[in-house]
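Progress against Task 2.4 (sequence-to-structure conversion) is shown through the following example record, which the project officer requested during the mid-term review.
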Amino acid sequence: MFRGENIICLAAAAWQGMWARAQQFMTIFARSGNRILYVDPPFTLISPLKNPALRSAPKDLRQCGGENIDLYSPPVILPFGNMYRTINRINQKIIAGSLKRLCRELAFKPTICWTYLPNTVDLRLPAGVTLVYDCADEHTAFPGLINKATVLQMEMELFARADVSLASARELCERKKELAPAITLVPNGADVEHFKKAMQPGLPAPPELKTLARPVVGYVGAVSAWFDQEMLATAARAHPDWSFVLVGPMDTDVLLLNSLPNVHLLGRSAYSDLPAYLKCFDIAVIPFKINDLTTGVNPVKLYEYLAAGRPVVSSDLPEVRTFRPHVAIAGTPAEFVRKLEEELAADSPIKRAERLEIAGWHSWEARAESAVAAVRRNRKRKI
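Structure tokens generated for the chain above:
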């Protein structure tokens, strides 16, 4: 692991949002003696219209409660930056100016810029900074206010500019090799020590789960456009005596799920509380639609479910297939129901221990070591 670096992380998700790759890596780097400036994705002028929760923006600069990490919310920027390159250049100039002032105030001289966003290709960096593009999603496939050609062009240029290119999924890595021949595969992982708390007998259950009918079929993560509501609804209708629990933010219409009395949408929960929810799950699920976005996804929740010892039923995602037979895969809603029934019936303490062992091979610490090794290799080439 490297030490003594000053890392600016241009994240795709806010620090206080769903914890995943960026937060995990930066936390590990900070513990290893590096200084982190974690930059939340900026709000645009129309962000509060799409999500009313964004009307009360966080303070510009704040501590995250951990050593060596400062959190920064950049200035509000113009909308449509992922549609029109000219607007993006204006936005990145605004962000660059604010970061320059902040770094001066903090006496923070960046040595690494670790970005997750193609549009940051237009962000001017100080000379000598190592640029790492950690590609964790197929950005051209996201719904919303984007122009696919514009995003693709920015990503192509970012790969060409980056000193180090990483990818979180095999499918994603294969797609991007033409743009970045030296790209390194660094899959996602789990905070194994955190999630294996779900196997502790004394961990108290969240109050809202104590009275639910068993078995409990659980999901942790965002309920977004890529979530296959029909697949889950089919299972909920087939087993009205079961409870289906979804823990995470919702940014799409959930009328279908809300119409089912045995489906419980609990909203976002603190990362620290997730093991308690997982302990109450008899089985965990990843019901994603299959499209260009999800086939390039390496779901963090897969590793977290395994670290909690839960049986897992997933849609047929390429990154999940390699975990068979320890994870069941369903191609249709009917098969999803059948796999749930089979996995619930076959679960045992031995299988739970096996899942935890498998998760141990995929810790975030091991992933961070792989990412750092890639940075070191490419820095030597640059010199």
